[in-house]
User: Which sequence fits this backbone?
């Protein structure tokens, strides 16, 4: 069976030798390309030959003795060399042509051959390129395939960014080389041999000189290159370490900041870059020295030809014609020889790189590819029990994680495991989940060793939630469904993808030995979740999220999301309705004071002056930034027209004075600075000199740059928040006029950079909440935000938009490593998806330990109820390694661990009666 | 700066803050929030984490305490304009010892904990005044306690 062969191939270690690897996978293509190159040769030689004929025959008139003389064009005669009898066969007798048409015919033939030759080259290069790219794809795929099968504990030694750099960057040069790997030496070698044979034919001794020089080249250069190769390897290793190190800096950036170690990192980096520099520099020196030597030797040969050949010619033992012939033939020798040397250099270089990579990916204890064989068949639910006998686990440093454990765990049992960290409870859970290999002992699921089970059984029928809260970047919904994606189960209509699939996708995947599983199919195992298809997934997801108390968070995330009316036109329209309803509800109610809505004719005292002037949301761009509004030309001209610039300038002076008076003697990290909304602590130092100049020179006299700095200040001023009474009614009216002028005279290039507040349109630059609110929450009223949010929520419920909003929240992008969520939220998501999957046994290994004790308590109760089949939910088995042992009495069975040993396993009632470690832990 | 001036005067009327330099009071006024409450709205509840202290500008508020952690609260004091409330909890990082509820429309100045702490770090005068205030309160409480004890023993005896 071919599948089996594939698994066998995947299990074999990677070839240690790159040439063998290439040959194994591209034999047929390499031979074909060689054949094509040979087929292209005649054209190439004809092209070299034709110009001579064109000049000699039609132009110089050779063979055209009279005006009416003709020559035969395109006669084709195949003849045997004279030593085989010289017989000839006329295939085509050709046309008789006069001189002028003959010139045209020969020139056209030349043009035709140039085209053919060009096409040959085009074909050969594309073919080689494709060959290289396919091999590159195959290699990358194989490398990552192996990463997926590395033993789990190997990852303690591997840095993610180093693996990434190997797979991405280090294999890159292979692509170029692969197309030339076999063709180049054959082709160049052939050329060299022809030229060499010609020289030997002319003069044996001169030929020998050429041989001697080449022999020197061939021995000296590889010798010199030894060090170059060592350096090449060092360069590769140091570069890889560099990317690993940079990855570490990024991951550990918080430690850098809180400990002021950035300069240590800089120095470390500099040290590393220095080492890389010296390696690379030496590499250059040696490489170019070799090049120099090579060129020198190539030039030495003609020198010897002239001296030695000239000597023979003078002596008369060699005629001048022969000497010239040899020198001419030698012209063709260096370039193929150099090419060969270069090829060999590249080969050894790449071979070393390859060996370096292969070493990292031929890991001991990699799991058999069959264990991860894709399986589209449903895996039947597990029953029975896991029986563990004599289980011992030792980690690679030799410390014991668990010792002599014997127990039986029914798949549908509800068991707690308690014990301090490192007591063996966690190690036991990891063994059952397949994250740790038992060092000795047996772990059997109904008489099959658990290590022999394919991942499709454990990975689907078991669910696992550990304390490690890493989530790759995706939406919340995708993070939840990730654990249910085992095999492509339902093909999707290509039209619904939004991405066009290349027609040759499958063909190329086969050619590169990649998997054919359809990425675009729907992979989610709905059956296991207990639902019939994607339409029913939403209530399920919502249910588990509410269970882990994430519902509120999702709702809040949704309210902060930006929506595009183009993508969700219906929802946006409904949200506009909600906005209008909210306004009706607010008008005349106690809520009226809580929100000041946007109104073109009213100054909004809860918004900044800038917001009041703009009356819209700005698409941030170089020429239009909200925090540098004064730099906008249109804004400046509007302000100047109404003399507002002068008033803002005065306000700027006042604000700067106040800020300096109040804040000048505070350190920049003082908490008071949070209240200074119109200036940053850094700016505070810039203003005193500006203030001095402004006061001295006045609005008219001061320089433009100072003027702008001062005008910018009041833009951030919010009347109700800062309470400095800078804006009286007259001022507000003038700002309103400026608002109108700004929008009435707005130039075209600016008008599409601002979304003007409009009661009837959805603003994609604002959050959902701001769109519904359409105004500012008032400053200085108790609980204003909470009250407003409650009434929005009520409205959404009334309008039955809650589900839509929840859906928006599910699309929230959780950021790299899920870092836009807190650790506690990530742990909740991990627990939620473990519940969602519909597994038979849920293993929780100190999951949700980032939650506070009360929340953990609630979570344990809820999960236990589900496991026991509350409200018609499907019951499941549970093994929970508890962080709070006090909760163990709610479970049916409790395993007590201490010092890497399983002490007891019984019902909590029995355990409580004995005066045991259980009592101590639970108390 | 006219309006800030009102608030500065208000701050100065609080005995604890009376000796502070003007620019510090201004800063405190600038950094605090004016917060209004409707009748019946709570400034904070007993047992909450404390994040701010309040100065009553206008209106009155009730101080409510529940002794046994039950929902039944009894009124122990009434606060009028210029009273400083919630200061103990933010100074000592303890949960609120009482609830405070507006019993008429109430206007307050809300001073955040970190701002108050920062002021105290900068100004030994302020710290001393706070200390003095606390000691006075302690003296009053001790006095009240001894009076109450006498009362109790008298009642027991009779």
Assistant:
């Amino acid at each position: 069976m071919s599948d089996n062969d594939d698994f066998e191939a995947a299990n074999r270690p990677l070839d240690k030798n790159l040439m063998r690897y290439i040959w194994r996978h591209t034999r047929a293509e390499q031979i074909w390309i060689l054949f094509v190159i040979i087929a292209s040769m005649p054209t190439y030689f004809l092209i070299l030959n034709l110009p001579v004929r064109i000049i000699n025959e039609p132009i110089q008139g050779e063979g055209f003795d009279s005006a009416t003389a003709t020559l035969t064009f395109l006669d084709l005669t195949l003849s045997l060399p004279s030593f085989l009898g010289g017989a000839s066969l006329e295939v085509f007798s050709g046309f008789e042509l006069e001189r002028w048409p003959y010139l045209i015919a020969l020139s056209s033939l030349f043009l035709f051959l140039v085209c053919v030759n060009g096409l040959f080259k085009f074909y050969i290069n594309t073919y080689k390129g494709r060959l290289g790219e396919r091999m590159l794809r195959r290699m990358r795929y194989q490398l990552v395939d192996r990463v997926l099968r590395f033993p789990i504990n190997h990852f303690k030694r591997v840095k993610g960014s180093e693996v990434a750099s190997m797979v991405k960057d280090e294999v890159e040069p292979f692509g170029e080389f692969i197309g030339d790997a076999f063709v180049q030496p054959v082709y160049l070698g052939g050329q060299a041999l022809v030229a060499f044979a010609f020289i030997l034919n002319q003069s044996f001794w001169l030929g020998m000189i050429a041989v001697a020089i080449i022999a020197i080249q061939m021995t000296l250069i590889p010798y010199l290159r030894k060090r170059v190769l060592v350096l090449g390897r060092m360069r590769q290793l140091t570069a890889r370490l560099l990317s690993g190190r940079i990855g570490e800096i990024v991951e550990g950036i918080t430690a850098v900041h809180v400990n002021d170690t950035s300069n240590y990192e800089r120095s470390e980096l500099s040290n590393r870059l220095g080492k890389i520099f010296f390696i690379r520099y030496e590499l250059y020196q040696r490489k170019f020295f070799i090049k120099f030597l090579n060129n020198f030797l190539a030039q030495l040969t003609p020198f010897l030809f002239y001296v030695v050949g000239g000597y023979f010619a003078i002596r008369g033992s060699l005629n001048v014609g022969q000497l010239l012939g040899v020198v001419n033939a030698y012209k063709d020798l260096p370039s193929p020889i150099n090419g060969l040397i270069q090829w060999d250099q590249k080969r050894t270089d790449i071979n070393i790189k390859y060996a370096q990579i292969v070493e990292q990916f031929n890991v001991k204890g990699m799991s058999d590819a069959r264990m991860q064989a894709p399986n589209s068949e449903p895996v039947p639910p597990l029953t029975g029990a896991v029986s563990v006998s004599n289980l011992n686990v030792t980690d690679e440093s030799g410390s014991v994680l668990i010792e002599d454990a014997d127990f039986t765990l029914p798949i549908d049992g509800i068991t707690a495991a308690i014990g301090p960290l490192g007591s063996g409870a966690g190690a036991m859970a990891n063994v059952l989940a397949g994250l740790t290999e038992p060092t000795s002992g047996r772990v059997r699921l109904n008489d099959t060793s658990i290590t022999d089970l394919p991942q499709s059984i454990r990975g689907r029928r078991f669910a696992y939630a550990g304390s490690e809260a890493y989530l790759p970047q995706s939406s919340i919904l995708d993070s939840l469904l990730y654990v249910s994606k085992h095999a492509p189960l339902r093909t999707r209509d290509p039209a619904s993808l939004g991405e066009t699939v290349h027609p040759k996708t499958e063909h190329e995947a086969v050619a590169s030995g990649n998997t054919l599983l359809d990425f675009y199919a729907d992979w989610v195992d709905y059956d296991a979740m207990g639902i019939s298809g994607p339409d029913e997934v939403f209530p399920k997801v919502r249910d588990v999220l509410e269970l882990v108390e994430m519902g509120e968070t999702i709702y809040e995330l949704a309210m902060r999301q930006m929506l595009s009316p183009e993508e969700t036109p219906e929802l946006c329209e409904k949200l506009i309705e909600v906005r209008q309803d909210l306004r009706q509800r607010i008008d005349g109610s106690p809520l009226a004071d809580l929100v000041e809505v946007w109104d073109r004719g009213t100054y909004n005292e809860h918004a900044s002056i800038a917001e009041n002037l703009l009356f819209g949301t700005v698409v941030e761009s170089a020429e239009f930034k909200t925090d540098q509004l004064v730099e906008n030309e249109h804004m400046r001209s509007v302000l100047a027209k109404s003399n507002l610039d002068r008033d803002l300038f005065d306000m700027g002076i006042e604000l700067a004075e106040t800020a300096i008076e109040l804040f000048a003697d505070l350190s920049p990290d003082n908490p008071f600075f949070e209240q200074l909304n119109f200036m940053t602590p850094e700016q505070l130092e810039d203003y005193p000199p500006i203030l001095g100049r402004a006061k001295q020179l006045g609005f008219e006299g001061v320089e433009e740059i100072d003027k702008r700095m001062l005008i910018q200040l009041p833009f951030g001023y919010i009347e109700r928040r800062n309470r400095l009474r800078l804006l009286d009614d007259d001022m507000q009216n003038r700002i309103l006029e400026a608002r109108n002028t700004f929008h009435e005279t707005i130039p075209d290039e600016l008008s599409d950079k601002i979304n003007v507040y409009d009661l009837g349109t959805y603003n994609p630059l604002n959050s959902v909440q701001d769109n519904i609110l359409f105004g500012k929450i008032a400053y200085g009223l108790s609980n204003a935000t909470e009250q407003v949010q409650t009434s929005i929520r009520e409205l959404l419920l009334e309008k039955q938009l809650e589900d839509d909003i929840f859906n928006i929240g599910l699309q929230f992008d959780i950021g790299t490593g899920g870092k836009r969520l807190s650790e506690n939220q990530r742990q909740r998501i991990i627990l939620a998806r473990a519940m969602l999957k519909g597994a038979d046994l849920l293993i929780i290994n100190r999951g949700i330990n980032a939650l506070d004790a009360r929340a953990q308590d609630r979570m344990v109760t809820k999960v236990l109820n589900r496991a026991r089949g509350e409200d018609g939910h499907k019951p499941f088995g549970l093994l929970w390694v508890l962080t709070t042992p006090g909760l163990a009495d709610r479970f049916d069975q409790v395993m007590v661990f201490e010092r890497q040993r399983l002490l007891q396993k019984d019902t909590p009632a029995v355990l409580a009666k004995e005066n045991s470690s259980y009592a101590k832990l639970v108390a | 700066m006219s309006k800030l001036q009102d608030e500065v005067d208000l701050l100065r009327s609080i005995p604890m803050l009376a000796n502070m330099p003007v620019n510090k009071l201004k800063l405190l006024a600038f950094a605090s929030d004016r917060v209004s409450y409707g009748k019946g709205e709570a400034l904070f509840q007993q047992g909450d984490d404390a994040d701010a202290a309040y100065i009553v500008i206008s209106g009155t508020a009730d101080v409510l305490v529940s002794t046994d952690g039950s929902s039944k609260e009894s009124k122990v004091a009434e606060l009028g304009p210029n009273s400083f409330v919630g200061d103990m909890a933010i100074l000592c990082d303890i949960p609120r010892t009482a609830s405070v509820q507006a019993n008429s429309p109430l206007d307050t100045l809300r001073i955040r904990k970190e701002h108050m702490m920062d002021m105290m770090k900068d100004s030994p005068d302020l710290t001393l005044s706070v200390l003095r205030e606390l000691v006075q309160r302690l003296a009053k409480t001790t006095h009240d306690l001894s009076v109450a004890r006498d009362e109790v023993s008298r009642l027991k005896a009779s």
